[in-house]
Amino acid sequence: MSEIHDFLRTSPLAGVMLTLLGYRVGLEVKKLTHHHPLAQPVLIAVLVIGPLLWLLDVDYDEYLTGGSVIAFFLGPATVALAVPLHRQAHHLRKLLLPMLIAIPVGTVVSVVTGLLLVRALGGDHELELTMAPKSATTPIAIQITEQVGGIAAMVAVFTIAAGILGAVAGPTVMNWLRIRDHRARGLAMGAVSHGVGTSRSLHDHPTEGAFAGLSMGLTALATSIVVPLVVHMLG
Amino acid sequence: MINGLVWLLVFQTVGELLARGLDVPVPGPVIGMLLLFVALQLRNAPESAGVLRVSDAMLRHLQLLFVPPAVGIITYFAAIRDDAVPMVGALVGSWLAGLVTVGLLVTLFTRRRGGAEK
Question: Fewer CB under 10 Å: which end of chain A, C or N?
């Protein structure tokens, strides 16, 4: 019995299967709720897999033996974001200037408000530094956090949470604000919710998806420049 | 399809090498994305190209790929609970501020420029 348990813990099989199972449940719930915004497959998958890991007495690192097999494809999938952008390239020339203004300004706003809100709400200095880069895509946010002295393991939690928040609530908030231009919606989503938000944009509209992917890349670059400057001034 | 997947990995590899070689603070796959975009534009790739088909297939299930890192959030449950107010408050507040800023700025500029063209 324990031999079987050990096999499941050390082989990537269980992690891959659990991930696919959780995601499959997520897709099913999405269909059943007629694409309710809360029914994001990634969110439901976490809610399914979390308790299962606890029940099966498997810790996160053991799960990652299989989980990382799936997460590996995040790299090529990011490269693949060139394809929706290629199809929407005719929008690019007109958007170049607005984009080159909005994304740096948006990045400064994200970083400054992240840092100051932690301070205002009673968080410590380390938490301020960890919150600052949370709009960048996860690998870059980790790199920046290490550079300025935050908690690298924690920033991944913030970036993923910001991503899920975007997938769940981003389009609704933009509807309230009457931001209807698909290019503006995509750029805004990519600037605060990176790849997870982009996945929602791709399902909503091809133009939104294309610009979300592009915005994610530009925001990563902008964040890495802005965070050290802001920390220097406000830290 | 296999050709397309190989191309994605080739562009990712070139991106990773450039990111490290030039020491730029952008993820390798993002550089790979920009390079692939330029290549697709230059070659005017048709819809039947393998890269396009494999990319569409992968991006349809992009959320699946985020499941393993997202599951990691539960390991920090205790830390989040202990510091919930600054963590959740700053995250949501700052996320909202960034979203609104970019969304409204782009809307403002595109409207103004659109108006000037008429």
Answer: N
B35 Cβ contact list (under 8 Å, min separation 6): A82, B11, B14, B15
B36: chain A residues, CB-CB within 8 Å: 79-80, 82-83
B contact test, residue of A58, A65, A79 with most B CBs within 10 A: A79
Could B104 and A86 be called an inter-chain contact, meaning their C-beta atoms sit closer than 8 Å?
A: no
A121 and B15: CB-CB below 8 Å? no
**CB-CB: which of A15, A164, A179 is closest to B70?**
A164
Contact (CB<8Å) B95/A53? no
Per-residue burial over B86-113, b if 16 or more Cβ lie within 10 Å, else e, is bbebbbebbbbbbbbbbbbbbbebbeee
The pTM (predicted TM-score) of the whole model is 0.91
Neighbouring C-beta atoms of residue A125, cutoff 10 Å:
13
Distance (Å, whole) CA B10 – CA A47: 35
Is the predicted ipTM greater than 0.90, yes or no?
yes
Among candidate residues B30, B43, B68, the one with its CA nearest the CA of residue A221: B30
Q: What is the pLDDT of residues A183-230, one digit of tens each?
A: 999 999 999 999 999 999 999 999 999 999 999 989 998 999 999 999
